[in-house]
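Convert to structure. Protein one:
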Amino acid sequence: MKLGKTSIIRHVIIAFLLLLIGFIDYLNKILFTSNYSPFLSLLVIMAAIVVFIYISHRWYQTPYVSEFRKINDYYKDMLNEMAIAKDSFNNLSGSHSIDDLEDLLKLFKSAQREQTELVCQLTNSNKVLDQNSKFANAIVQITGEILKSGEIHSILQLILNKAIEIIPNAQKGSILLWNKDHLEYKAMYGYDIEALKDFSFNFNEIFQYNAKDFYEPIIIPNVEEFNMNLKQEKFDILKETRSFDLNSCISCAISIDNEFYGTINIDNVESNYAFVDEHKPILKSFAEQIGVALKNAQLLEKILYMSQYDSLTNICNRAYFEEQLGALHTDCTEKHQSYTLIVLDMNNLKIANDTFGHEVGDRLIVTLTDYISNMDPKAAIFGRIGGDEFSMVYRDKTKVEVNQIMQSIREHFDNFPFKFNNQELLNISFGYGVSVFPEEGEDITALFKNADYLMYIDKRSFKNARL
């Protein structure tokens, strides 16, 4: 059949060439009737044939040959790959051989599938590596923020922002912290924090309440359905603030030393299947970072407290008292307001220490300061400025009113002697001096000097009365 087609094509080409020769000869006779020359006509015909062959070769044969070579090279490469695959297969299997083209093609297709799967795996690996790189960078940034900043709210917001940036399909999120008996929003992304700043959840309303493993991340495919058990009032608030404009959530509890402190929730508004198990370890790492941040904040708060307050009495130490007094003095000076400074020194504390021991002496100090700290009206500032010396500040009280307060403290301890191990030991007493700003001193040094002077006069009066 193929030979028949080739023969027909060959005859058609010969016929076309004969027609072309006849046409050229006929055209030559018409154009050059008087000077017609058969030899010249033959030259024209030969030139026409050469032009025809050149054009055919240039326009048809050359592209065909080029494409044929490409196809030929492709099949050669494919056969080489199949031959390599065959050798590999024969080397691996040993007991099998590939002898026919069909098996070779199957093996080649199998190799292609494996190659495609490998490319997919590499692509996924690259995505994971990129995700891990982003996570590592986020942890470095969060750690730096924790170390340099004691402001826990900015740290929580940073952690939440990074979690939404890194966890696939994350679009919204929130961090809630435990406050005595309920959970409060402390950081948000994509929600109206003003509308929800006073909103709270009870412990039995959180996602983890019935979870098998409380501290492991959980996926909630339908948040609105889960929250159907909320009280109607709470449900309506979440509905009105569009907090239910989401389809799925992944949540993890936050803990410090295995103690519950809150939750971090990452949300998606488009799909009930936005989160998968592979996202859980990422969220848990962020929850752990929140735990670290909170623990550091607690430590910083504790260190700050220890630097500002007296460890025995829990009132201001001297440095913090002077700092607060300086701020109050500046404020009263600018506002043209008055304040009253009191210096108080306990009587016979050394005798009590020598007679009953330092434990009793410490209890005497604590008994006095506890009473003053809890009485009404409370002092604006109350601090321990020496071993048995204390100072208080009242705003907007006259000297007469402050003296009445101090006398009431004396009367209390006169009526209630100090007891230790259920045994009455002595009555707590003290001397004090009162100085009013700005009448008795326009600067803090002058006020202290005047109050000290009056305090020593008061102590001398106490000793003279005992003689």
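Protein two, convert as well:
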Amino acid sequence: MAQVVCITGAGAGVGRATVAEFARNGWDVALLSRDPGRLEEAAAEVRRHGGRALPIPTDVADAEAVFAAADRIEAELGPIDVWINVAMATVFAPVDKLTPEEVARGTAVTYLGQVHGMMAALRHMRPRNRGTIVNVGSALAYRSVPLQSIYCGAKFAVRGFTDSLRSELLHDRINVNLCMVHLPAMNTPQFDWALNKMGHKAQPVPPVFQPEVAAREIHWAALHPRRQTWVGWPTVKAIVAGRLMPGLVDRYLASAGYSGQLTSETVPTTQSGNLFQPVPGHFGAHGRFDSVARPRSWEVFTSHHRTALWATLGIAALFGLHQLAKRLDI
């Protein structure tokens, strides 16, 4: 019997690519997202691969809707083996142009949406003492950038909640795996449908990767659980630089963080975006950056790789201090 995976944000972007990746590998897929039409399109792809698909229109900010979806999945597809939290929302704007309602909504989707997913999955996984939850994070969960304070704050919060829950599961000896996969810039539709108050079209900061890169690593993490996985060298650079030189990175982003996220193409500041309601249209996994997006990444850092990285940096720092001490004759 095929294994069952639930994927939030399944209608487009990384979620849509993840649906296709699991379908190609023979899984039955439950799909959660707000837009029924895009969910049906994604579900049809699962069925073409011979799997069972259960599309459930769901706003992940609504806890009861997520809990009800989990109950329905268990009843119609069977026990949930893997739950993947992908759904997100963002706003491109400086803080002084945000409203409290926009902050609350973006946080409810990107942060509470993952919390609701974890809680819903655990309701079923804890009694069975098995299962895997994969939370999709970002380099921006470690190193914030200007113009995306809502998204960055939410991703930081997901990381904190996940770490707390992981310790609780270890304390209770619950055999449920809890993983985070942190991604670089991805070529998804979010840069066309996100609420944008900047007057220019948004873009991912290069280098940009295709959503299938993320999907493959999410699938790998579901089968080979690790505490965290960093995907792509840009993710590693952002995280390491933010830890070693946070002040310098602050100043770099102050000068380059605006232009790096915006194109010269203008866009009306009155567009509503997808924050409160789905944007209609046949959006898929890819955004408009196919010409520059990379189809693969050779750099994937798991917990073991990061331990080696920090050890190497530590040894290099000690060696540098030793050489400095010799020059100063200390």
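The two ends are 68 Å apart (CA to CA). Residues 100-128 form the longest helix (29 residues).
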